[in-house]
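Every protein is a chain of amino acids, and every chain bends into a shape of its own. The protein below has been through that process, and both of its lines are reproduced in full.
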Amino acid sequence: MHIRAPAILLSARQHGETAVIGRFLTAEYGLVAGYVAGGRGRNLRPVVIPGNAVEVQLSAKSDSQLPFAKVELVTSRGPWLAEPLPAAAIGWVTALTATALPERQPYPTLYEALGGVLDAVCHAPSARGWASALVGYEALLLRELGYGGAGGRPEGELAQVIEAMDTIGEPLEHYLLADRRGDVMAARTRLRELLQRIT
């Protein structure tokens, strides 16, 4: 297997002393995992941050082997991780995607939508500019995985967006995160609490 593609880094789990196992979302190949040597080292630590847009090169001798990954930074989300609300949004949406999607099945619409949500979180003047896009992404994720009927992107004030967020929470928990919801849904609860404070 040899892949080179633009990707969004969804998670980076420590492996050994300096490496990480990265999970990357690509448009063409879907969710792919790779071993990033030195991922916790000084040079790569700023690159392997969930939410970052990267160029990833994956190579493995067989499909059953975990590929080795080389990553180059394209767009950093690091500066926004110092702010509680954007950090919570980036953490939630990347964790949800990494947990819910099956590996190596392409979802180009989700790839584009996730990139759009992350851009909105980082560049909108406030959460009012991106909260509805984030809830719309949750609904899209449910539809793409065959659990439609969750509605679309909510319109209106932030209070209405939070209401829509509450409505879609149950299908997310029930269908996408049934056996794995603990830490992932905790990230969503934290995000909702932060949004509630600014309404």
Remarks:
- Helices lie at 84-100, 108-123, 131-144, 158-176, 181-197.
